[in-house]
Design brief:
The chain has 99 residues and is mainly α. It is built from 4 helices and 3 strands; from the N terminus they run H-E-H-H-E-E-H.
Length: 99
């Protein structure tokens, strides 16, 4: 049997995790996990919408360029923001394994 490669979270996995857990993560943390530059994350996410507003600016705690109407009503439910790639990757892997 050929050993499988270790699981590495995708952007879709990260967005699903953040939405499910109602927790925010910085553009920088997401960028490190998916191995792109932080300013590329918004482009990869695509159209601004409530489902993806969980990726936020580290300073403001809000997604860049979003109108209030595009923010999920639960966005500010928790004060915690995931700020490191290691923390984000570990949490997504744990969550993905528990589905």
């Amino acid at each position: 049997m050929v050993p499988s490669e270790p699981y590495h979270p995708t952007l879709e996995d990260i967005l699903a995790f953040l939405r499910y857990e109602h927790i925010r993560a910085t553009y920088g943390a997401v960028a490190e996990v998916i191995q792109v530059k932080p300013n590329e994350v918004g482009h990869l996410i695509g159209v601004r919408r409530k489902e993806v507003c969980w990726v936020v600016n580290a300073r403001t705690g809000l997604p860049t360029g979003y109108r209030e109407s595009l923010l999920d009503p639960n966005l500010r439910e928790k004060d915690e923001i995931i700020r490191t790639d290691a923390d984000l990757e570990q949490r997504v892997k744990h969550w993905k394994g528990s589905l």
